[in-house]
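On clarity, I found the account of how folds are encoded harder to follow than it need be. Since the whole study asks how a given chain folds, the encoding of that fold should be made plain. For illustration, here is how one protein appears when written out as sequence plus structure tokens:
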Amino acid sequence: IPKTLAINFKPKLLLEVTFPQESETAVTLKAGVQLARNATKGPPTFAIRGVRTPGPFVIAMVDPDAPTPQDPWAAQIRHYLGGNHTVYDRGGALKNQTSAITEYLQPGPPAGSDAHRYIFLLFKQPKDFAAQEVITPSTSVVAFNISGFAETVGLGDPLAGSFMRVAPDPPAV
């Protein structure tokens, strides 16, 4: 987890992030893997390993590298923010019981940029999370601050996380 996120990351669980594919086997992230943009159409599914509680959980996905890793003035871009994820099977698969605050936004690093990191964080959901109004579906996804949001709404430290890298699409030939 980059220091710019200002998150105390000492995971207690393993977060699995899986992207469905149109004609291939789904892709489950290995932390730090680089995926082609077309492999991230999503939305992803989530599962946790090592769970001792069924949830609910909050999941966030942020891009700390916008518009480029060398000049991240628009970071963090919020690519997903959803609460009420609960474990629904023995394998630890998570199911979202409500609409996300920020529905999944596919990675789209601009042409000419290096690959961006996309970070997924799983938090224990506080009882009053559904009433929070700090971030709403109409709040801009640009210049989000995951650590500030987590502190303001009482999420605490993330329980798990993962990340991937996604490069811009190659130029059309």
Summary: Helices lie at 146-153. Residues 19 and 85 are 17 Å apart (CA to CA). The radius of gyration is 16 Å. The beta strands are 14-19, 27-28, 33-35, 45-49, 57-63, 77-87, 94-96, 116-124, 160-166.
